[in-house]
């Protein structure tokens, strides 16, 4: 672990710059509204009456659909507006096709910003500052969330659901019996815990990147987590938006830091071969062996759905979780990497605005929260409404974050974020390419 600690001085300059830049980064540079030259007036009630029915297209179905519909019932009754929700597992392609054919839904719920930006650039989506109170919305959201929906100074979507990725999971009883700290303040302290676990005779970490054609995406999350912690949100944004090259020294250094952890002898159960060949959904399972064969796994809040059924049935007693900690000498604050569904408006009228105001407010989702499987992106959401203590812990972790940033690979061009970055991570982990070589190849292949 010593080489990681010696790198702090190398990282501190960029991290300090990032910390100083945070205040400006979280503000709307153009709340009054200009779009490519001309001013866009705010919408006022009565400008365009609605029809009484609003169509919504999203990706989530099954139990998630049920939770969403339950969260809409009271609003529909009180407002008199009927919401017709259509789930589509091929949402990414469907929304592009429908919008391109002149038949978009009134409102769409984008699981990633990329497709939203494509349509915003074509003038198909209304910026939120036209019809929502931007400052009020931003004041209740986890800091930085709206920046994930910003394009050329305008914000085109507002979050109605959050995913939290920056989480470290552990088997509660075994971890506590081992005497390991459950709230390490820094990654360096977490490395000390890693060494303590290793000294006890088991692997500290379990990890799995297997995902068929998508193998490697878990690896991109590791790089993104460290970019946020070591260099801070401003440098992270510059990297994701390609304002600095992918092979910048800051990025290559982070690859090396992640390699120190994942490639370190005995750090991960089964070593690098196991990481590549283990499906990401199976990575948590060694934590619940009897006795555990690994003690830690880093993954988002969705991973609980892959825990053994008996563990899921008794989550609060069986599972512990804490935030992936900060980097000593890096960004001065707790960053959170995640994602979320962004509500966007295609048809501007009184009814659609009322629906958007509700979907993006801190009172939306209480029924969904009680059913489970949903997190509010608002710091001001009533966390007592969540169905389990562990969900409330995760909500608190996200709510207390100094900065939230969207998954970087989801913001990069598809050829990178869903292509060369994934494959590059696999080549890097297997040792066929160095950190510098992988970063150089990704940079050289960045779409012009």
TrEMBL record:
The keyword S-adenosyl-L-methionine is assigned to this record: no
Domain of life of the source: Bacteria
Coiled-coil stretches: none
Disordered, as annotated region: 24-49
Keywords from the named record: Transport
PANTHER family: ARABINOSE-BINDING PROTEIN-RELATED (PTHR43649), OSMOPROTECTIVE COMPOUNDS-BINDING PROTEIN GGTB (PTHR43649:SF29)
Family designation: Belongs to the bacterial solute-binding protein 1 family.
Protein known as: Alpha-glucoside transport system substrate-binding protein
Organism: Brachybacterium sacelli
